[in-house]
Amino acid sequence: METRIGHGYDLHRLEPTGDNGTSLMVGGVEVRCGLQSIAHSDGDAVMHAVTDALLSAIGEPDIGSLFPDTEPENENRDSGEFLLEAMDRVNAGGWAICNVDITVLCDQPKMNSIREQVCENIRRYIVAPVNIKGKTHEGTDSSGAIEVHVVALLQKGKTHE
């Protein structure tokens, strides 16, 4: 069986809104934390990095090539649509996802409170084990950002059980 590893990365600046009703999308989960992502789409750095990890593993173009931020139809677009496209390509190539490991670096919001919701949401898209860890920038990030690293393991000719 052929095995491949893909790495995905994304980074978005976070901006305070002064309104705790404002939502930040994290892995398809709306987090009301008074922060918003500076982005062309919905700014979901977790979904973007997962999408890129899968595309990387199968040798396809990255998310920026498939969904450029210069295209009006991608403005405020749901990042779940990007992940669905990556899954279509994964499935079309006969690949199966063995697992996805996610590391989220941000001082706010804290991942512990939403970890399981994010994992459940991403599992609905990829139907494979998902692990997520939250880390902080240890106060070194004065600009405020969410940074995400993802590693995905895929195999051809194997189905996930």
Overall description:
The protein is an alpha+beta fold. The protein has one domain: 60s Ribosomal Protein L30, Chain: A. It contains four helices and seven strands. The protein has a five-stranded mixed sheet with strand order 4-1-7-5-6. The two termini are 16 Å apart. The model has no long low-confidence stretch (mean pLDDT 91).
Number of domains: 1
CATH topology name: 60s Ribosomal Protein L30, Chain: A
What coarse outline follows from CA principal-axis ratios?
globular
The sequence of SSEs as H and E is EEEEHHHEHEE
**Subunit arrangement of the protein:** single chain
CATH top level? Alpha Beta
* Gyration radius, in Å: 15 Å
Q: Report the strand count.
A: 7
Strand order of the largest sheet: 4-1-7-5-6
CATH superfamily: 2-C-methyl-D-erythritol 2,4-cyclodiphosphate synthase
Biggest sheet record = 5 strands, mixed
How many helix segments? 4
CATH architecture, by name, is 2-Layer Sandwich
Share in β-strands:
25-35%
Whole-Å distance between the termini? 16 Å
Decide which structural class fits the backbone.
alpha+beta
pLDDT averaged over residues: 91
SSE layout and pairings?
Elements: E1 3-16, E2 23-26, E3 29-32, E4 35-37, H1 45-57, H2 63-66, H3 79-92, E5 95-105, H4 115-126, E6 130-135, E7 145-156
Parallel strand pairs: 5-6
Antiparallel strand pairs: 1-4, 1-7, 2-3, 5-7
In short:
The protein is 27% helix and 34% strand. The model has no long low-confidence stretch (mean pLDDT 91).
Keywords for this entry:
34% strand; alpha+beta; single chain; five-stranded mixed β-sheet; 161 residues; 7 strands; 4 helices; two-stranded antiparallel sheet; 60s Ribosomal Protein L30, Chain: A
